[in-house]
Amino acid sequence: MSFYIFKMDYILLIVGLGVLLLAANYLVDSSVAIAQRAKISNFIIGLTIVGIGTSSPELFVSVSSALNGSGDIAMGNVLGSNIANILLILGVTAMIFPFDIERLQRHRDIPFVIMATLFVTIIANDSIVPGITKNSLNRLDGIVLLVCFLTYMGWVIVQKGKDPKKALEEADEEATSSLTGKHPLLLWGIAVVSLAALIFGGNLFLDSAKNLARAWGMTEAAIAITIVAVGTSLPELVTAVVAASKKNPQLALGNVIGSNLFNLMFILGTASTIKPLTFVDINIWDYAVMFLAAIMLFVVVLTFKKDKFDRIEGIIFFAAYVAYTVYLLLR
Question: What global pTM score does this model have?
């Protein structure tokens, strides 16, 4: 019986990945068509609709973990997902299809990711204060994070989304969609169904992966930062790869930036507001790697081909993620 269950987990793992691939394809197509019809840039669509939607698995896992009193899983999920988003997803995307980094991304979005990462690192590590032994995020921390998130999203939408002509000029002219010209209600319907399928496929993959990890003897902490984090980041990974293959990598970058900010501010903010989070096994080096990944994203702007994420940098990012994963497994 146990062998049958073990075998089924492998099958469900493959089925979950298949659902993710199919859903991501339709999500990218519908998002590009929506952007073209509304005359707004693909980056904004990636930052908002796709970025937030594909982060739903992280929200589901972190809130559930908070309610169950598993602060390490909630934080480990966010840390691991953000590291995977930058090092793994952008690394793979750049290896497939190198892309340019726009001015607003350089001067506003990427620096904001760095600041948000540093802010969360500081408020989550209470033990740096003499007399405090436990690291946590309380309800006040959560409310502050939620306010920061809403302020940033409002700023982005007002600043860029309100200027359709300029946004259209910034959009990737090579972006293609098989759904271009379809009725808006159909496009939004496909986008919503695709997001739901991404969540379903992600959960299916996640549950089977966690079962297999336990069968292999991995601890819950290791599962949270590796299997859970990568599993919940699969929608972003698949969406980014599909977007790159369709010559629309700007959607991938907007998706990653939107997802990372959503993870740090909305997910942690929501989870800690519902129930304060306490962390026991999260290592300071995990925060350091998350912060380093954000810094590396900014350094990309200044190195090799300036303002372009090229294949060499993609390989470096991917290698860094593999090295971090090996470190986690050895730890």
Answer: 0.73
Place of tokens 């973990």: 65
Q: How far apart are alpha carbons 241 and 276 in whole angstroms?
A: 36
CB-based burial of residue 310 (10 Å sphere; 0-12 exposed, 13-18 middle, 19+ buried)? middle
Query: Phi and psi of 279, rounded to 5°?
Result: -115, 135
* Distances in whole angstroms, Cα of residue 143 to Cα of each of 109, 118, 156, 269: 22, 17, 20, 6
DSSP string, 100-158: E--HHIIIIIHHHHHHHHHHHHHHH-GGGSTT---EEE-HHHHHHHHHHHHHHHHHHII
Task: Give me the residue spans of the domains in the chain.
Answer: 42-173+213-330
DSSP state at residue 61: H
DSSP state of 55: T
| Alpha carbons 113 and 82: distance in angstroms, whole number | 10
Class of domain 42-173+213-330: mainly alpha
Euclidean distance between CA atoms 91 and 73, whole angstroms = 25
Span 218-238, pLDDT tens digits: 666 667 677 777 776 777 777
For residue 213, give Cα distances in angstroms to 22, 169, 208, 210, 228. Answer: 25, 47, 9, 5, 10
A 10 A CB-CB count for 321 gives 22
More confident residue, 318 or 62: 318
CA dist 133 and 110 (Å) reads: 33
The angle subtended at Cα 82 by Cα 285 and Cα 166, nearest 5°, is: 135
- State the Cα–Cα distance between residues 3 and 226, nearest whole angstrom: 24
Q: pLDDT tens for residues 178-232?
A: 666 678 788 888 888 888 887 787 677 767 767 776 777 766 666 767 777 777 6
* CB 268 within 8 Å of CB 95: no
Say how far apart CA 138 and CA 271 lie, in whole Å. 10
